[in-house]
Amino acid sequence: MARQMAEFEEATDFLNFCLENAQEFSRRDWLASLTLMTMRKRFSTKLPLFHKYNQRLLQVATTKFDEGVHLLLHRYGVLGYAPAVWHLLPLFHTRVGFMTSKQVSLSAWAFGRTLINDEDAWVAIGSALKLNVSEFSLADLAMIAWALSAVDRVSPPELVVLKQAVRKKLMGKDVGETSSHDLCMLFKAISRLTPQDKRFLEWLFLILLEGMATKTLAFTAQGITSVWATLGHLSWRLEKEGIEALCEETRLLRLDHTFNQDMAAELANALMKLGIDDQRPTYQIVDFIARKGLLLRGDVLLTLVEFCATRDVTHDLAWKRLGVRAQQRGIDLRLPEINRLASAFSKVGRTNKRIDGMLILFTKLREDHAKYGAA
Known about the structure:
By secondary structure, this protein is mainly α. It has 20 helices and no strands.
């Protein structure tokens, strides 16, 4: 069935096919449909056809996914569809005691991805972790840590066990044998859950720096950006060696096709908060603006304009992109933010009559909205 499903590029055609053939779908077919669905044109979880599809699938979940509910939870987590995850909680509770470590971590990830704050579910995950902690791999522990941070669940017993397990997995191990993705995920998650535990976080950070300095860890754009963002969140004063390793690792960030505007904004915010003015990370942001500046959202636009202003960026094409986008998306900002945007352009002399005129218009519209409400 998967090959037949893949032939339908439009979401509506795809969903109609699934509904028409639901009676013949095996467990593998249902899972394949959930995976393929994310790649269909004009797909949205708000589509009425998706709701019908979802109802049909959940009707057979108890029989077809009695031993595979974690797979369903994971797929719905990818879709970010919380209603189905809530519906599957009773089935999860009946199976969690029989799940492997990988299955528990996948379920936890799905709960974190869809912001499921069910106390019983998290207690069950914590119990499974404490009962069989030696069976959890570093990747499993990273997924659970990420999930706990996503729902702001700070449970000392769970975190103590998790941190002890991480130490045991990493102590005496060659850095090159680990995954930068897992380490970055752990570093960011633990910093959110227990930012005061500087000893543990510094230990993780040193492992990351070693991997950068020795080139034994390969960092993705998401990974290196998350390290910068975490350091900014912690407001650490970095040693010269740490700054050098980070800036050097960031040198080729622009060559990673996954580097997006959210990452550029995260990097810019972190550099400003940490007070780091180095051309290597700065150039990654400026190059991104020059290439993708006409696609920026309003919030990201403001961050990057302020960053370029504080760093005295002189790249003409980047400023041109920012100026054009300010005229297009400045209206998305609130009144104080529009004023900040105008101030940043003026500060470095990168404004002109068109930019000034549009930002003044946006300011008046926001003032009128505040006085008289929406039209």
